């Protein structure tokens, strides 16, 4: 369950006080969720400095994308590994912070694995990522994930904003019947198609730039691996965007449930009036069933090898149609 950054920091400090702090954490969350603040707060606790001066402490080693392609490259991690093998300047902890960790090149990630598996004594590693689905599974499996929730005004992507607008338009212009549900499913799939085309276009441009940069200097086989990596990351980026868009459908029905328990709708304020009407019109079991239908659809899609259009149509009809479809 996503935590506020302050709550997550308190838990990590308590873990350290009880000698139970893990050596590697993946801190995830959207922009504005407090990933950086959490990392600097924990670092200041471990090293006895202030968050404002943490990055200048001699026992703090941080990485961020610096190359023209905005990637984290293997040379950076080799330097980091060498620094972490040295004794702490002040005889205590050492902390490594990797900003935008999802931008690791495959060679960099593979080189970093040994450090994650066998970190030097009193060393803690913090990976910060807005898009953890783009990280290699071998990296994910070696870290304890801390998922932060956003605070303040939500920063929606263009596609996420389009989903919220689509839901409002659905309840303003259509009926929650079979025909209306099919219309909503088709419109949602069009938004997904648009998102996928954008992701592929950006990825293709990035690959073309990297191919031009490295073509004259590296083994052709490495370029083939680079292309395969780009294809995998493009697919991962699409899956991540699809997940976020589906989460908005789920969030809409969560707001309905909140309203039924006399709590305010806080996930999709744009659609609050429609959620309030449904909270009054539907019984609790029906509203809960609709939430679970979206959850089940997300789980089904994540398994892979699934007919995406069919799964989306069935799930959306279950959630936004008149009754459960068998």
Describe this structure as you would to a colleague.
The protein has 326 residues and is of the alpha/beta class. It folds into two domains: 143 residues, P-loop containing nucleotide triphosphate hydrolases (Rossmann fold, 3-Layer(aba) Sandwich); 163 residues, no CATH class. The chain has eleven helices and five strands. It has a five-stranded parallel sheet, sandwiched between helices. Helix 4 links the parallel strand 3 and strand 4. Helix 6 packs parallel to helix 8, helix 7 packs across helix 11 and helix 8 runs antiparallel to helix 10. The two termini are 31 Å apart. The model has no long low-confidence stretch (mean pLDDT 86).
Low-pLDDT runs of 5+ residues are none
User: Tally the helices: what do you get?
Assistant: 11
Radius of gyration: 23 Å
Percent range for β-strand residues: 5-15%
Q: How many strands appear in the DSSP assignment?
A: 5
Q: Note the overall shape.
A: globular
Proportion of helical residues = 55-70%
Helix and strand run: HEHEHEHEHEHHHHHH
Question: Domains counted in the coordinates: how many?
Answer: 2
Mean pLDDT over the full residue set? 86
The main sheet orders its strands as 2-3-4-1-5
Structural class: alpha/beta
Distance separating the two termini: 31 Å
Q: What composes the largest sheet?
A: 5 strands, parallel
């Amino acid at each position: 369950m996503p935590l506020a950054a302050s709550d997550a920091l308190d838990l990590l400090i308590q873990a350290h006080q009880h000698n139970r702090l893990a050596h590697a954490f993946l801190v995830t969350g959207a922009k504005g969720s407090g990933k950086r603040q959490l990392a600097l707060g924990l670092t200041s606790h471990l090293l006895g400095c202030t968050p404002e001066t943490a990055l200048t402490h001699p026992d703090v080693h941080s990485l961020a994308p610096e190359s023209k392609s905005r990637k984290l490259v293997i040379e950076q991690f080799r330097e980091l590994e060498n620094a972490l093998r040295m004794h702490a300047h002040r005889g205590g902890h050492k902390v490594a912070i990797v900003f935008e960790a999802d931008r690791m090149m495959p060679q960099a990630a593979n080189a970093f694995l040994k450090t994650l598996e066998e970190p030097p004594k009193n060393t803690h590693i913090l990976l910060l990522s807005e898009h953890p689905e783009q990280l290699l599974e071998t990296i994910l499996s070696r870290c304890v994930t801390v998922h932060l929730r956003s605070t303040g005004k939500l920063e929606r992507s263009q596609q996420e904003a389009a989903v919220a607008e689509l839901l409002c338009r659905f309840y303003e212009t259509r009926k929650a019947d079979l025909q209306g549900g099919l219309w909503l499913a088709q419109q949602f799939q069009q938004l997904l198609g648009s998102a996928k085309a954008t992701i592929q276009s950006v990825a293709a441009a990035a690959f073309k730039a990297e191919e031009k940069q490295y073509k004259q200097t590296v083994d052709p086989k490495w370029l083939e691996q680079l292309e395969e990596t780009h294809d995998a990351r493009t697919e991962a980026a699409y899956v991540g965007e699809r997940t976020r868009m589906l989460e908005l459908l789920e969030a809409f029905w969560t707001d309905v449930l909140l309203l039924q328990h006399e709590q305010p709708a806080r996930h999709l304020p744009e659609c609050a009036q429609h959620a309030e009407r449904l909270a009054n019109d539907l019984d609790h079991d029906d509203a809960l069933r609709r939430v679970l239908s979206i959850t089940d659809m997300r789980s089904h899609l994540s398994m892979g090898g699934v007919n995406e259009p069919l799964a989306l149509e069935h799930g959306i009809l279950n959630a936004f149609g008149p009754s459960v479809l068998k």
